[in-house]
Design a protein that fits this description.
It comes from Arthrobacter crusticola. This is Nuclear transport factor 2 family protein. With 132 residues, the chain is an alpha+beta fold. The chain has a single domain, classed as Nuclear Transport Factor 2, Chain: A, CATH 3.10.450.50. Helix content is 29%, strand content 42%.
């Protein structure tokens, strides 16, 4: 699968809430970085394909169902590298607080599978939404 096709599958499966399908897009060994917040269990690094579905299930459990808007507006592809630009709007389940953040994701694709995902977001907005 071409790099852009993999990125489009990633966006589609994310929008569908398909944690297992998202995991299927990754290689066995991955370079995964989500800005660390020790209070939020889905943040930090991951290194195995098997970590991917659990990441999404844990993240989604922290958000109010039906209260998220995820708008990917740009997919930039350069060889094996992809940059996804998006805007996320979520409601934190424990506090009921809404937060908005512009997001950039860097993906690297090799042989039709994602080897790297690095997420860049407004970590302050996320942190504030989960504070009681």
């Amino acid at each position: 699968m071409a790099t852009k096709d993999v990125a489009e599958q990633f966006v589609q499966r994310l929008g569908a809430g398909d944690a297992e399908g998202l995991g299927d897009l990754f290689t066995e060994s991955i370079d995964w970085r989500v800005p660390l917040n020790e209070k939020l269990p889905w943040t930090g690094t991951r290194s195995q394909k098997s970590d991917v579905p659990e990441y999404f299930r844990t993240l989604w459990a922290g958000l109010e169902p039906g209260k998220s808007i995820v708008d990917f507006d740009t997919i930039l592809v350069d060889g094996d590298d992809v940059v996804l630009l998006a805007h996320f709007s979520h409601m934190a389940a424990p506090t009921g607080k809404r937060f908005d953040t512009d997001v950039a994701m860097r993906l690297t694709v090799s042989d039709g599978k994602i080897t790297r995902l690095h997420l860049y977001e407004d970590t302050f907005a996320v942190d504030q939404a989960f504070k009681e």
